Amino acid sequence: MEIYHEGARSLPVVQQVDVLVAGGGPSGVAAATAAARAGQNTLMIERYGFCGGMATAGMSGAICGLFTSGKSAPLRQLVHGFAGEFYHHLQKRGAVSAPFPFGATALVVHDPQVWKEIADDLLADSGVKVLFHTQMTDVVMQDGELKGVIIENKSGRQVILAKRFVDATGDGDLCVKAGVPHTLGRNGMVQYPTMVFRMNQVDIARGIGHSMQQLEVWVEEAQRQGYTLPRRHIYLLPSPRPNEVMCNVTSILREDGRPIDATSAEDLTFAEQSGRRQIRQYERFLQRFVPGFEHAKINDVATQIGIRQSRTIVGQGKLTNDDVLLARKSPRSVAKSAWCIEAHNNDGIFMFYLDNDYYDIPYDTLLPQQVPNLITAGRTLCAEHEALASARVTAQCFLTGYAAGTAAALSLRQNRAFAGVDIAELCSIIEYSV
Ligand SMILES: Cc1cc2nc3c(=O)[nH]c(=O)nc-3n(C[C@H](O)[C@H](O)[C@H](O)COP(=O)(O)OP(=O)(O)OC[C@H]3O[C@@H](n4cnc5c(N)ncnc54)[C@H](O)[C@@H]3O)c2cc1C
User: Fold this and answer.
1) 3-state DSSP call for residue 37?
2) Rounded to whole angstroms, what are the CA distances from 163 to 39, 136, 372, 409?
3) CA dist., res. 324 & res. 372, Å (int)
4) Could you give the domains of the chain?
5) Which atom from ligand 1 is nearest to the alpha carbon of 195?
6) Structure confidence at residue 433 (pLDDT)
7) How far apart are CA 242 and CA 227, in angstroms?
């Protein structure tokens, strides 16, 4: 490959803050809110013009991970803290469905527009400075410590200095630039992306509640008739808006079956274009085969292809598959979860439900192996492939994000590295469990 050597450039330092949060998805919004509430001068940068990441731009559609799981006891809300707070705001604005059954547990479907507005309000009320349309592209390092980030936006290439950093980019961009090692799924096999869309004019009484098996039978029949429907296990979820359904039904792989690498612009381009083609196939299928969808039309499509998984950082602790399967508890827990393992693999979906139990997510899974003033949260936490396929959902991203932002404030106040933060004190602030 031909190489161009970029010359050294002098960049303006445009801000100096206590806590810099890169990324404004569920974990970034939670982290920035927590750090600012704890009195730190906090800046959150986000490449889009709104918050929510995969929950809004990717239109993931629902909050999973709020409730207990199992057939042996009635379902109840399991996690609270920032996840409970955000859920409550959605409820107050009439922007979330009633709990909807999902296997042995339940989820709630949200309105992505109201999601963005709630995030704006929480950030403003807690005093977070927000910079939209701004991408973190590089880092400023000194003696193994992170000093700042290089950002790019329409104003040019600039530097922001900070004392503590939270990587909430979902793809581990900040960690990777700072030299933290990472892995990609199980030996490079990451979960497939989905282009999510919404259909309106659905007769909800007839269109929702078909069993998964029945939907699979209809998909197989349509496949025999020549429809291109690569995914059989499809989710149709009732939106809080009247007569509208969230359709989480597509699945994208390269032509040779290779998974999409969300850190490759070429793969992402392929995924966006394939996703748009697939949703028209599924629209036709739903109208023709699924009762209740006869007059339904696509009324909204996700802003970007939905990425479930990309880079996973190598952390000081790791959430293992056995931790989830055996519902292990940890004295260093900052979040808990009863969400199933829901691994959208290229050879099909692997599901596993806990029965009336939950597992803990330890603080150390958020701590990169190097770089003492950097922490991550959300879907980049250190976990084995199947464990991540459970721990990556929104309620747990809210919780790990809030823990990361609170830890940033505590580590500054106590003049310690992230690793030295007192877990009991951290937990007394984040109140993720009541
Ligand atoms: C198709 C699909 C369906 C899903 N369904 C559900 C569901 O029903 N329920 C559920 O709970 N979860 C669901 N999820 C999972 C959930 O949406 C995500 O795991 C969650 O949004 C992850 O949050 P995060 O904050 O870790 O990262 P993200 O949501 O990915 O947010 C990262 C943010 O960082 C920004 N960013 C990235 N890089 C940079 C950079 N370099 N500089 C500046 N900003 C940057 C992005 O724009 C984004 O806003 C689904 C995910 C997908 C893809």
Assistant:
1) helix
2) 14, 16, 11, 10
3) 28
4) 13-187+309-339+356-430 (3.50.50.60), 197-301 (no CATH)
5) 1
6) 67
7) 29
Q: What backbone torsions phi and psi does residue 165 show, to the nearest 5 degrees?
A: -130, 135
**How far apart (Å, rounded) are the C-alpha atoms in residues 398 and 405?**
11
User: Per-residue pLDDT tens for 46-84?
Assistant: 999 999 999 999 999 899 999 999 988 889 999 999 999
DSSP reduced 3-state for 337: strand
Distance between CA atoms of residues 234 and 240, nearest Å: 19
Q: What is the DSSP letter of 263?
A: T
Q: Is 191:345 a contact under the CB 8 Å cutoff?
A: yes
In single-letter form, the type of residue at position 168 comes to A
Q: What one-letter code names the amino acid at 419?
A: A
Both tokens of 292, joined, read: 């209740």
List Cβ neighbours of 25 (8 Å cut-off, separation of 6 or more): 51, 52, 53, 54, 55, 168, 170, 378, 397
Distance CA 358, CA 245 (A): 30
Q: Kindly report the average pLDDT of the chain as a whole number.
A: 96
With a Cβ cut-off of 6 Å, ligand 1 is lined by 22-28, 45-48, 53-55, 58, 60-65, 107, 135-136, 168-171, 173, 194, 196, 248, 306-308, 378-379, 392-394, 397
Q: How far apart are CA 14 and CA 158, in angstroms?
A: 7
Mutate to test the pocket of ligand 1, among 27, 48, 54 (most ligand atoms within 8 A of CB): 54
Residues in the chain: 434
| pLDDT reported for residue 71 | 85
3-state secondary structure of 233: coil
Pairing of strands 42-45, 13-22: parallel
Phi, psi dihedral angles at 64 (to 5 degrees): -100, 160
Instruction: Please name which of 381, 370, 434 lies closest in space to residue 403, comparing C-alpha atoms.
Output: 381
pTM above 0.90, yes or no: yes
Burial 222-233 (b: 16+ CB within 10 A, else e): beeeeeebbbbe
